[in-house]
Amino acid sequence: MTKMENPPQTQDRQPGIEAEMTPAPEFAPRYPGSGRLDGKTAFISGGDSGIGRAIAVLFAREGANVAIHFKDEHEDAKETVRLIEAEGGRALALHGDLGDHDTARRAIRETLEHLGRINVLVNNAAEQHAQDAVEKISEEQLKRTFATNIFSQFYLVQETLPQMSKGDCIINVTSVTAFKGSEDLIDYSATKGAILAFTRALSGNLAARGIRVNAIAPGPIWTPLIPASFDADRVAKHGVDTPLQRAGQPNEVAPCALFLACDDSTYMTGQTLHPNGGTLVGG
Asked: Which of 9, 50, 226, 228 is the most buried (most CB within 10 A)?
C-alpha cells in the first residue's frame, strides 16, 4: 500500500476555508438517495465545510431540509446552501459564535421559524490549536476551545430539546483523540473526551423520551481544520500514520451520520462510530 500525502499548505485563520484547499475535500454523496430522511429537518453546526458540508448534502439527498450554522466562512456556506438546494432540500444558513449561549438560542429559534422543527441535531462545530507543551495553552485558548467544542453542544441541545419528540435524535461529533489523546492537541482532546461522556450520559437521560443520542469519532479527515491548524509538512502527512495510510474524506464520515439519523439505527443510543482509517480504540 502506498502512503497518500497531500500538497503542503497552510491557512492563517481558524476555522479554515474549504475553497482554498488543494485538493478540494470530497463531500459528494456516493450513492443515489433512498428517502431515508423524507420529511425530516436537520440542524448542523459547522455545516459550511468539511464533515459538516458532507453531512448536509447527504441529508438533503435523503430528503431532509437542512439548516447549517457557521462562524464566518460566508463563501463556503453559500456554496453549501447551493449544494443542499441542488439535492432538492430547503436550506437555511446562519452564522455567529456558538460558544455564546445567546447565539445558539437565536440560531435554533430562527431555524424553527423558517423550517418548522428540528428532528436531527448534529453537533459538529469545532476548533483546535496545536501547542507542543501544556504550559503554552493560554487561558484564552483553553476557554475558546471548550466554548466552541463542548459548551456549544450543551447550548444547542438545551435549546433544541423542548420541541423534539420520540424518534428524533442527536449526533455529537467527537474524535479519535477522545480515545487515544494527541500530544499537541491537549485541550482539544480534553473537549472531545467531554463530548464522549456527554453523549453517554445524555443518551441515558433521554432514552425514556425516545430520543436517541450517539456520536461519531473521526480520525484524520481532510477538512479545512487541518491546514488551519498545522504547518505545511504536518498537513502533507495528515493521516499517513493510520493503517490505511491516508487521510479520510468527509464523504467517508457522512454516511455514519446518516445511519445514526435514520431508522436504520433505532436500537442504538449512547454509542460511537469510528471512521478513523483503521485505528483500534476501546470504549
From this structure: 50
31 is catalytic: no
Proportion of the chain in helix, strand, coil states, percent, rounded to 5: 40, 10, 45
What is the C-alpha to C-alpha distance for residues 28 and 46, in angstroms, rounded to an integer? 17
Tell me the three state secondary structure of residue 47: coil
Bridge partner list, 123: 172
According to the model, what pLDDT value does residue 227 have? 84
Give per-10-residue mean pLDDT for the chain (283 aa): 81 84 92 97 97 98 98 94 98 97 98 98 96 97 98 98 98 98 97 98 98 98 85 88 96 98 98 97 73
Instruction: Give whole-number Cα distances, 124 to 53, 162, 173, 210, in Å.
Output: 10, 20, 5, 22
Cα 229 → chain centroid: 16
CA distances from 231 to 66, 150, 214, 237 (A): 34, 26, 33, 10
* pLDDT score of 254: 98
pLDDT value at residue 6? 86
Q: Write the DSSP assignment of 161-183 as a string of letters.
A: GGG--TT-EEEEE--THHHH--T
Q: How far apart are CA 96 and CA 48, in angstroms?
A: 12
Count Cβ atoms within 10 A of the Cβ of residue 153 and give its class: 0-12 exposed, 13-18 middle, 19 or more buried.
Answer: buried
Question: What CATH code would you report for 37-273?
Answer: 3.40.50.720
**Residue ranges per structural domain of the chain:** 37-273
Report the predicted TM-score, pTM, of the whole model to 2 decimal places: 0.95
